[in-house]
């Protein structure tokens, strides 16, 4: 069975900055994968190349065995590849409900009226039911992150890419978000999560990869990877052979 999402030998540079240097990364149906790496390592760019907003210099992107390297972001979304953004950017003049309806209608090719019940249900699930008719522009940070989730889920993804969703939240808010991610994952959606809040990440994922200098320098069991000498070297300046 092919991986659900696979990046094959992906390379990308911005001028002299190499952000991906022949990266191979795949995720299976229902899996939860974490991505760790220092600021500027190229994590968000990797999501851009998976979802079609950034064109790789070389390599292929496959979804369920199908080559989507040249597919538009919209087409990838309708295949079942959704993402959240590090800085949530809802349509701020629309209500919370309208934001989710737009995502369902355009991200999953459904007729607007056909999605109302499902969107109301999603808002309930994401803790936003009481704000359904409020303008999205007035939401708190946690609620904007919840809305990112609801909008991504409205597209009926098979894999959901999450970009630093826990950053800036209080511990309690972070716990709320982790349980939402676990709930989404339990419903069968594969998760790929870039996150600097390591304890939240480790509580959720099955597998961890570490990106540095355009390469995956460690991957495998999260606890083993996090304690590996290469990761200690990057994050704490401890030399691997010390
Ligand atoms: N469109 C672009 N043009 C030029 N340089 C870019 C572009 N996008 C990203 N970069 C650069 O590529 C590098 C990787 O950026 P990216 O946002 O992918 O890193 P990141 O690992 O997600 O970082 P962070 O953890 O801070 O979000 C950075 O040096 C960034 O400045």
From TrEMBL:
Residues 5-238 form the ABC transporter domain. This is ABC transporter ATP-binding protein. GO terms for cellular component: plasma membrane. GO terms for molecular function: ATP binding; ATP hydrolysis activity; L-isoleucine transmembrane transporter activity; L-phenylalanine transmembrane transporter activity; L-valine transmembrane transporter activity. The keyword ATP-binding applies. GO terms for biological process: D-alanine transmembrane transport; L-alanine transport; L-isoleucine import across plasma membrane; L-valine import across plasma membrane. Gene3D superfamilies: P-loop containing nucleotide triphosphate hydrolases. SMART domains: AAA. It comes from the Bacteria. Keywords: ATP-binding, Nucleotide-binding, Transport. Pfam families: ABC_tran (PF00005).
